[in-house]
Amino acid sequence: MKKVLMLAIAAAMAVSLFGCRGDSDDDQTEKKTPGTEKEEQVKEDIQLKLTWLGLDMNKEKLDRSLKPFVDETGMKVEAVYIPGNWEEYFTKIQTMIAGGEVVDNAYVAIEGFEMFRHMGLAQPVDKFAEKNKEQVEELFSDVPKGVAAPFTMDGKLYGFPTSYNNVVIHFNTKLLKEAGVELPQADWGKEEFLEICKKLTKEVDGVKQYALSIPNGNFMIEAWLRNNGTGFMTPDFAKSTINSEESIEIFQLFQDLVHKYGYAPIPEPNVDPIQQLIDGKTAMGSWGRWPMDEYENNEFKDVALQYIPSFKENRVQFGVDGIFVTSKTKHYDEACEMALWMASDKFVREYFTIGNIPARTSLAEELVPIPGYPANNEIFYKGADTAVAVSSPVGFAKTASITMEAFSKIVVGKEDVKKTLDNAAEKMDAVLAKY
Amino acid sequence: MTKKISVFKKKQRWDNISGYLFLSPALIAFVIFIAIPIIMTLVLPLFNYNLILPAEFVGLDNFKDFFADEDMAIVFGNTSKFLLILTPMHCILGLILAYMVQRVKHTALRNIFRGVIYFPSIVTTASVAIAFTYMFSTDSGFINYYLRQLGLNNVPWLTDSNMVYVTIAIFSFWKFIGTTFLYYFIGLNNIPESYYESARIDGAGPVQIFTRITVPLVTPVIFFVVIITTIGVFQIFNEPYFITNGGPGVSTTTVALKIYRVAFQQNNIGYGATVALGLFILIMMVTVIQYLMQNKWVVYDYE
Predict the structure, then answer these.
(1) Same domain, A87 and A130
(2) Domain limits at A181?
(3) What is the ipTM of this complex?
(4) Can you give the pLDDT at residue B53?
């Protein structure tokens, strides 16, 4: 009896290990509808899985914004929220798909477009677009051509644009007023910029108030380079230009702003530069429309906008995002339907009231001014037709990492600008040559 | 006789079956979570793999890249710096702390010290590390605020490539000293009190007692602590990831952080596995050397 009992306990322990497995496989089996059955499947039975970059606190807003789609079509939508930056977000999607999860739609930023296509994660939506020509044409007729262009790769359409961002200078108007500085004109240059920086830098109660936060991100840094007539790489992503003369000038300026002039604090991890602007610790920062959420949460409205100083030209850079249909979906038409619906007036009006700039010009012009601030907010969407896209090659994660490493060495570590950028260019060329 | 043997065999068979069944949960977990990943780490360096596209056999290309990659010298160098700073710090200060607390006669007070020193070890590393960055922030951190109140200049805790090692060492001491402290504390408690009494009767002072009695008798624990601390520091990830993000520049980018970036941010799993294999071989070599050297200084004979 004792032996049988022992054996039973041991068997139970062994079985319990298998009992730990989740029921996701069962779910997947249900979703794996063979072609013939698929046609018979009613939309009410379909659940689409959508990945979204963001924090759970925004999930309620997304679910609310998606509800009309659920009500209209009867399909269910499961939104998977993935926190972190874009690189971590893309890796999570890859891990989910590699782990056998079926993701139908993904919210993707331009930085991941080429990578998504290269890895076979995205599939073209041309077939669907052909069938729904009128709606698709209506969408693209309302989106600035430059903003829409990155969605077409190798002659195929890969998704529908929802929103975009450019990079402009945000000013704390209270600090401008205190320093007796007027909001500069759109064509302000380097000299005026340095003059304003000087006026905005001071010490209050032993704590330094800085003129600006150095742009501390791949997207923002390249936006400054654009105004000096360059970028991180050539437009066809064939060769690095991060060590061009124009690029060196801008990186040198960043280093000087911190170490020579003392107009900017050394960028530190976990220090939120948007909060610094809100708290009046810095007077300027370079961002798109995304700080609006933080401004709203802090009831901070003392903010005005102007373009980045024109060093050689005023060339607005943008980064666009939209909804892709993954190659793993078992519901191609439905996933395309949702992607297109999410680019529609109904979704964008609900979700992008604050935050990114709606990709549809009609909505951007209508929604951006609604909060009543920042002053000069029309520059968020003006000039989108001639704007240039942020460099987003297949190996974006690697090139961005190389850029940020060089940036940190120059701005934080005070290393020689030319030498550091030459080294970065060599590494970047090696990455670009791979794809 | 035959019947007896048969009964014995039957019993042995039952015992074997139940033995294997008892073992199976641990065995299956070992195979899934340890054996397969180890085998994969040995195999993946031969492939280019990004989780989605089919793995592409590249032979020894990843190894060639590994030896040609100038970043490797930097990250292994940074990890060595951490090894030189953190391993002696934890091994020596943990022992001193444990000895001091063990000498406290008042039981309640001793328990309080024990709890206070060990407490940080049970706190989530990520949250505390982020709190540390706020404390050590150059302009808005309260440490520099008080330094300024004393008329001193801001210390670049997080922005100077040398100073960040001090900052991380302070964090590491606060966060992890409790673990080594606990090992030593248990080890010290196992030393018979009679040894100390005899030494005192023979006229030995506190320093002599510590160096001649305590340290030799606690060498097996020191050896264990040195081994696990060395391995832990070789794999250091949380501190640079949360406190400095590997910076300034790449001055605190460690091997583990590099593996994470290559494998999980740049999706180059094959090369990430190559670096991981390099780290594994290095740790194994150092551990074997430490193991072979123990005969020269570790005392197992208490009698």
Answers:
(1) yes
(2) 166-318+385-434
(3) 0.79
(4) 84
